[in-house]
Amino acid sequence: MSKDIDVLVLGGAGVDTIIHVPELPLPYADSYMIDSGIRTRAGQTGDFVAVGLSALGLRTHHLDMLGDDPEGDLVRALHRDRGIGLTAVPQPAGTKRAVNLVGPDGRRLSLYDVSRGHPDDRLPEPTVRALAERSRHAHVSITQPCAHALPVLRDTGVTLSTDLHDWDGENPYHEPFALAADVVFLSAAALSRPELTMRRIADRGRAEVVVATAGAKGAYLLADDELTHIPATPPPAPVIDSNGAGDAFAAAFLYGWLNREPPHRCAQYGAVAGAHACTVPSTETNPISRAELMTRATTAPR
What we know:
With about 300 residues, this protein is of the alpha/beta class. The protein has helices at about 45-55, 70-80, 125-135, 145-155, 175-180, 195-205, 245-260, 265-275, 290-295; strands at about 5-10, 15-20, 40, 60-65, 85-90, 95-100, 110, 135-140, 160-165, 185, 210-215, 220-225, 225-230.
């Protein structure tokens, strides 16, 4: 079958309400005046990865559950405006949403509305299979419907990636994703011994590459049984918000990986894209372009 999709993104569609606060943690008070405004926009992890991949020239399709509601309309409009294919499975509970409190240094606290989902939510197997068979690669968000899609995805033979986000290395929920993927991303924030967790993922699962991002400290790359530190790339402008930096890293890494670049080069692409994302206000969606990525990668720390 012809592969007319470069990357199928599963899950992670939703809407965020962004509130810039004077500090984090936010001290208790009866009220705060937010002079920067309170804004709602489409864009959670799957959306950001899809937009980032598309901006780099990869043919991208997004599959997730959406409600027939204003939040779902925002997600549909984002994909339509960016020319990204979207298959929206009806979600009676409504489109996923969250509130992000963003501090002056760009750090954030996310509050997720978990009422908009049920344990029996599923992505239809025929839809997952049909889209996967058209795709060179699939990037899987760690949502419950996507967990049930993992066996179907593996059965099609498509390569997989996933982002475990702030996994502590112990929570069993994340393990099926970690062990099924060929490329695994995660944050080092909750890991006391990142290398140990990374090697355990590689030893027990299918991963060819494991990447642990560490913010301003850069990232750690495990490939060919060798652990390498990837220096952080200096942002091209002042840091405004770290929201979406990990998704930008993953998109740029996958761009390199699908173009058969060495893992170290892929990680450099990721570091450049992640640094760019930190300079973009959380109320905007402005991923790095392929031309910008190539230009900045030539001067990135090695």
